[in-house]
Every structure is written in C-alpha cells, then in structure tokens.
Description:
This protein is an alpha+beta fold. The protein is built from 5 helices and 17 strands. Strands 6-4-10-16-15 form a 5-stranded antiparallel beta sheet. A 4-stranded antiparallel beta sheet has the order 5-7-3-17, with no helix packed on it. It has a 4-stranded antiparallel beta sheet with strand order 12-11-14-13, with no helix packed on it. The two termini are 65 Å apart.
Amino acid sequence: EENYVTYKQYYYLKQKYRVNNLAETENIVEKLRAVKDKDEIENIKKEILEDNRDSLEWLEIIRSGTKYIVRVEERIINSDINSDNNYSIVAKKNAVIKSIIAYNGEKVKEVNSYVKKGEEIISSYVTMPNNEKVFSGANGKVIGEVWYDVSIDYPYFYNEVLYTGKKRRVISFNILSKSYSLFNFKKYKSFDINRKYIFKNGIIPINLSIDYEYETRVINDIYTYDTAKEKAIMVAKNKLMDKYKDIIDIDKVIIINESEDSSKISLNLFVACNEDITEYKEVIEEDKNESVKSE
C-alpha cells in the first residue's frame, strides 16, 4: 500500500505480468477507503449523535459520489426549563401522537394515540426490571397531528403593491399639483415617495423638495374560481405557519365548505399539521408522593 515502487519491483512486475507500462495509482487506496458502506455510515451517525446528545436532535448522512452530505437538526433547548427542577412531558394541545423521542423518563402513551391538552406522554418515573418505579425526570420531544379550523376569503380581482428594494434621492421643483424632478433621467414606473421640503414660498405655491423614492411593483390579477381556491389554500397555510411557530409541516387540507359571490371565494378548511406538542410540567414533591402512593 505504498505510493511508489522501486526499479527492482517494477522489473519484477513487468516480467511476471508481461506489461510494457505501469499506470500511476497514487491515492487509489485512500479514495477507496473514503467510500463507506451502509453499516459504517450508521455507526458513524450513532457515534456523532451519542457524542452530541445535548446539541443534536437528528442527523442524516447522504452519499454523493465520493462525497458525503451531512444534514443535522439542532436540539432546541427550552429556556423556560430550570435544570434544578424535575419535569414530566405533557401534551401542549389536543393531538394524535405521530412520534415520541424520550431521552429521559418513560413513555406512557403510544404513537397514533389521541391525547388531550395536559395529558402526560413521558413520565418522570422509569419502571425497573423488578417493577420498582425510579424517579429520573423526563426529557424528550413529541410530534403530534393537530387540526385547525380555518375560514378564509380570497378575491377574484387581486391587487398588491410590492417594494423592489430599490430607492433613490432626487430634488424636485413643485408648482401647484405638478412636480418636476431635476436631473432625474431614468424614472421609476411606479414608486412611493417621502418628501422633505427645503424651500417654500409663502405667497406663490412654489417649492423645492428632496424626494426619497422607493420603487414598487404593482400586481393586478384576475383569477378563475379554481385559481382563487388554490391561492386561498396557500394563504391559509402560510398564515397558520406564521401564527404557530411549532408547526413543522402541513400534512393535509380538507375543504369543509366553499361558496362565492361576484368578487370573492369563501372557504372553510380543516388543516392537519405536524406540530411539536412538547410541554414540560414541573413535578413537585407532593406530586411525587401521590404518584408513589397510587402505585
């Protein structure tokens, strides 16, 4: 596995294999070693996650040729959690459980089971092989399917003004309702303006101003029924994602009711979202004693 051969080795190989030339193979062994099989990749993933349990939630390694793409999700630490206290994990909302990750504590609910807000999902107590309950505190993450009832109207005639990000300052000469920009050779087609006067005549309606112009793009669209319905569903999804930051993705949308008039379409939707429903509930001394008695 050396990178070079001596002349004696070269002569021996030439005679034995009857070759005229030996092609350079520098670093081939190293390159082959760089390609991992599935078992090696899984072991690497496990080692990385084990070494970074406090900072990584999820990790994926994807092979692309002789390169590997690593995708990670950092663990979000709840700043409201006091490390000196003990907690169980309960449902933040009514939901159908889709996944449970328990780093500490014991799962007391199953995937695909329905939970109400406040129901315990990961207990602070762990059951030992001898059925003894040992208090350890809970730590983990629960993803649930949460349903939202959304009503939305969407117009057939759509108007929106968007800012392009371009802006400039010009000097304008203004008389009555007319305005003339000085040395402005390339005007914006549409823009918003913020005007500051630098000279005013108290007798004649003439003045000079510095105008700050912000370029805009005006959207005027007329939608069909199907297009307006598609747009309304998209807006409803975006509003939900903006309002509830724990939503991971939207699984499905069911139209419960739809109607229209001459100017708009109206939809009533059921929207199913995959959402982080993890909530930490402090376990105080009284709760621990009551739990032990109930056992």
